[in-house]
């Protein structure tokens, strides 16, 4: 029992810990950022969870191309759904943070924001592509091809382009790097567990989605 | 084999006069409508953005349809005679050539109807070439995917716009430099490097992924 569910228990425990202690622990006083620096505990780990799920989706897409198994394709789809689900709180926390530090909800000055909007569009396109093909095997193959191609293009967008142009995000275009905010050991005690907690949590959601589709498949048969 | 395929494509394209004429009228129409909408008065950034938006839409509409005619008996013939790698490479090369012509024709009419803002023509032509090959490369694979998905034409644009955006954004930033005509030392060659590597990346990915789309 414990062996099977350990990561779920840990993830819930860690997330509660970061939610509470993230608001209580002392943080460095920085200009502009002030108290909003606490958003590092929520905004960044949620994006990591999204990227992690997109990576899981990519791996299962590649797997489904090489094995031709429908189960892998369904897992790739579920991972994309979970990742998409995480992009919403990621966007909202980022938007609120931007309002208080950069004074707008959304800005086109920042390539990371555009990159995120594009990757959300890519995954919406992936879902629409899936809905428009009826044959299951055909859908598995074609959507896997699109997923692999889109993942590579999305990463060019998110990882490489922002480093070339000015960005408002830390670590790009002359802004102080991430490690500078993170240096404070008080913050590390919350930030690193938060990353682990959200990653485990996203994996848990992924497992639940998989079980639902597995049961649905059984019902259909 | 690849040369044969490209020759076949060219023959097919030129035999149907309606396609070539259609392409020309499409481009002239689009450029003329945009020129009228702006009444020919454009500042430099708008000139730049409008040109690439027109090129983007032209490429998606015209070179995006390249796989839609490969259905039924034609598809079976190709399947029996060529390997998927030969087929996709020939498609990409043909689309790149076609897209190059398209973007130069677009540029010609754009300059004719609006005006020429480009100061560094050499750089602009290089960007135009890299951009058209990049667009054509991505669109070949997207067209192959879209043609398999219930023949819905809207799906072509839904699939391609998000994946074309990295190319378009790099191109716009880079061509801004060509338009401003900054000196050689100030030119951001990293943009050209990125464009070239995006081209190579697209071709490599198509080469690897297309065989999975090939069989029906």
Describe the structure in your own words.
The complex is a heterodimer of chains A (221) and B (216). Chain A has seven helices and no strands. In chain A, α2 packs parallel to α7 and α3 runs antiparallel to α7. Chain A is mainly α. About 2% of the residues of chain A have low confidence. The longest helix of chain A has 36 residues. Chain A has one domain. With 216 residues, chain B is mainly α. Chain B contains eight helices and no strands. In chain B, α2 packs across α5 and α6 packs antiparallel against α7. Chain B is globular. The model of chain B has no long low-confidence stretch (mean pLDDT 84). Classes of the chains: A mainly alpha (221), B mainly alpha (216). Chains A and B meet through α4 and α5 of A and α6, α7 and α8 of B.
Helix and strand arrangement:
The complex is a heterodimer of chains A (221) and B (216).
Chain A: H1 2-24, H2 43-67, H3 70-101, H4 111-131, H5 136-164, H6 178-182, H7 185-220
Helix pairs in contact in A: 1-7, 2-3, 2-5, 2-7, 3-4, 3-5, 3-7, 4-5
Chain B: H1 2-15, H2 17-38, H3 44-62, H4 73-81, H5 84-113, H6 121-148, H7 153-180, H8 189-214
Main structural class of chain A: mainly alpha
Separate helix tally of chain B: 8
Mean pLDDT metric of chain A: 80
Radius of gyration of chain B: 18 Å
- Into which percent range does the helicity of residues of chain A fall? over 70%
What coarse outline of chain B follows from CA principal-axis ratios?
A: globular
Shape of chain A: globular
Most extensive chain contact?
A: A-B, 30 and 28 residues
In angstroms, what separates the terminal alpha carbons of chain B? 22 Å
Low-confidence stretches of chain A: 173-177
Oligomer: heterodimer
Strand content of chain B: under 5%
Chain-averaged pLDDT of chain B: 84
Number of strands of chain B: 0
How far do the termini of chain A sit from each other? 30 Å
Question: What is the makeup of the main sheet of chain B?
Answer: none
């Amino acid at each position: 029992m414990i062996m099977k569910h350990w990561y779920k228990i840990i993830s819930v425990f860690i997330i509660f810990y970061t939610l509470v202690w993230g608001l209580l622990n002392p943080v460095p006083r920085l200009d502009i950022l002030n108290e909003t620096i606490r958003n590092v505990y929520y905004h960044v780990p949620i994006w990591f969870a999204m990227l992690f799920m997109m990576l899981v989706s990519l791996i299962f897409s590649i797997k489904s191309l090489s094995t031709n198994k429908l189960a892998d394709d369904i897992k790739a789809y579920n991972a994309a759904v979970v990742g998409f689900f995480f992009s919403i709180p990621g966007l909202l926390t980022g938007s609120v943070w931007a309002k208080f530090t950069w004074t707008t909800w959304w800005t086109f000055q920042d390539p990371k924001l555009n990159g995120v909007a594009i990757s959300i569009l890519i995954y919406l396109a992936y879902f629409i592509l899936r809905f428009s093909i009826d044959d299951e095997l055909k859908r598995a193959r074609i959507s896997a091809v699109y997923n692999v191609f889109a993942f590579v293009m999305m990463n060019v967008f998110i990882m490489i382009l922002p480093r070339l142009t000015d960005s408002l995000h830390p670590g790009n275009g002359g802004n102080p790097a991430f490690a500078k905010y993170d240096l404070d050991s008080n913050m590390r005690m919350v930030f690193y567990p938060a990353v682990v907690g959200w990653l485990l949590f996203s994996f848990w959601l992924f497992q639940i989605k998989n079980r639902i589709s597995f049961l649905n498949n059984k019902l259909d048969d | 084999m690849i040369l044969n395929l490209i020759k076949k494509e060219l023959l097919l394209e030129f035999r149907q006069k309606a396609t070539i004429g259609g392409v020309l009228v499409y481009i002239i129409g689009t450029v003329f409508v945009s020129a009228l909408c702006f009444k020919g008065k454009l500042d430099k950034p708008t000139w730049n953005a409008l040109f690439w938006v027109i090129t983007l839409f032209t490429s998606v509409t015209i070179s995006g349809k390249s796989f839609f005619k490969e259905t039924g008996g034609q598809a079976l013939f190709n399947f029996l005679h060529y390997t998927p790698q030969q087929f996709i490479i020939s498609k990409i090369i043909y689309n790149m050539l076609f897209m190059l012509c398209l973007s130069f024709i677009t540029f010609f009419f754009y300059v004719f109807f609006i005006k020429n803002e480009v100061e560094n023509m050499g750089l602009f032509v290089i960007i135009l070439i890299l951009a058209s090959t990049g667009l054509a490369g991505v669109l070949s694979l997207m067209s192959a995917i879209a043609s398999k998905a219930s023949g819905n034409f809207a799906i072509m644009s839904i699939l391609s716009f998000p994946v074309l955006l990295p190319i378009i954004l790099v191109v716009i930033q880079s061509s801004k430099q060509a338009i401003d005509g900054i000196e050689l030392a100030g030119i951001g060659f990293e943009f050209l490097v990125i464009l070239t590597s995006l081209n190579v990346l697209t071709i490599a990915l198509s080469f690897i992924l297309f065989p999975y789309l090939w069989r029906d």
